[in-house]
Design a protein that fits this description.
17 helices, single chain, about 0% strand, mainly alpha, about 300 residues, elongated
Length: about 300
């Protein structure tokens, strides 16, 4: 994710390039550095360099990096003809390259020939089973075809090899949630919390899943993770505050009104914090909040 400072720098340079102020190569380097996909701009400004032999010669070895960047941008923009030309140049220069092999697979994939692309990727994985990029392409391809069960299988296989990939765990968790497979989603969030215990988003998502599963034990645990979300965000997470109130209400219904002192104090603090927040940020909706808390018997 691009930070605010990086975004300002990137937008400034993009505006400069778009208005003929120069800096095309610097802009393209920045796009790669920040790992953003501004494919239409990359295609336009990248081609202007590649089509100018004088500019291209100044790049030295970086010329091939630009061919790759433009090829991917062309695929994104469905300019298959341009992508094909770029890949041909790279094939000629690097005939045995795995990196170019990936591009060949992506080009076939962009044409919609998923089975042929999968065969190319599978062949590449036979030579290098630890190629993360190819594993991710196969997962993305399964999702693009709407084959979610295959995407899940491939994600699980990927995570057996690359267990520290937080983005993959989160993606798998979100797929499970979309399929209402909450126990499997909970396992994914547990892995994320173990790896990155200070990320409030994971605590909140885990609490939401446990609350959805229900049952007194899950609700008690959900309330703890809502509380940890509030702690990690300095008391500024409205959703987690609501989560404590909802969990407390659900526990009260299951226990027929029996409440622990600690639980009562926590829900009272959450309700007070919500009221304070609404008074400050949205006073016109305060009556709605009050009515909601009253219905929850808080």
């Amino acid at each position: 994710m691009v930070g605010a400072t990086e975004a300002v720098e990137l937008n400034r340079l993009e505006n400069q390039v778009d208005n003929g102020g120069g800096g095309d190569w610097e802009y393209l380097c920045l796009v790669r550095k920040f790992k953003v996909r501004r494919s239409d701009k990359v295609l336009k400004h990248g081609l202007s360099i590649l089509n100018d032999s004088r500019k291209r010669s100044k790049l030295g070895g970086e010329e091939w990096t630009l061919y790759e960047q433009v090829a991917i941008a062309a695929m994104d923009c469905q300019r298959i003809d341009i992508a094909k030309d770029c890949v041909k140049v790279l094939q000629k220069q690097f005939p045995e390259s795995v990196r170019v092999g990936r591009l060949e697979g992506m080009l076939v994939e962009a044409k919609g020939s998923y089975e042929d692309a999968d065969n190319i990727y599978e062949s590449l994985l036979e030579d290098n089973p630890l190629d993360q990029v190819i594993h991710k392409r196969r997962i993305a391809m399964s999702k693009a075809q709407g084959n979610i069960s295959e995407a899940i299988t491939r994600l699980n296989k990927y995570l057996e090899i690359f267990m520290a990939d937080h983005d993959a765990w989160r993606e798998l968790a979100e797929i499970y949630v979309s399929l209402q497979m909450y126990k499997q989603a909970a396992f994914c969030y547990e892995e994320l919390i173990l790896c990155q215990p200070s990320v409030p988003l994971y605590h909140l998502a885990y609490a939401d899943v446990l609350y959805t599963i229900g049952g007194q034990e899950n609700l008690q645990t959900a309330k703890k993770y809502y509380a940890s979300t509030i702690d990690l965000t300095g008391g500024k997470n409205t959703r987690a505050l609501y989560g404590i109130c909802l969990s407390s209400s659900a526990i009260g219904q299951l226990t027929k009104g029996r409440k622990e002192k600690e639980g009562t104090e926590l829900q009272s603090l959450a309700a007070t914090a919500l009221e304070k927040d609404y008074k400050k940020r949205s006073p016109n909706k305060l009556p709605l909040l009050t009515a909601t808390l009253k219905n929850l018997k808080l």
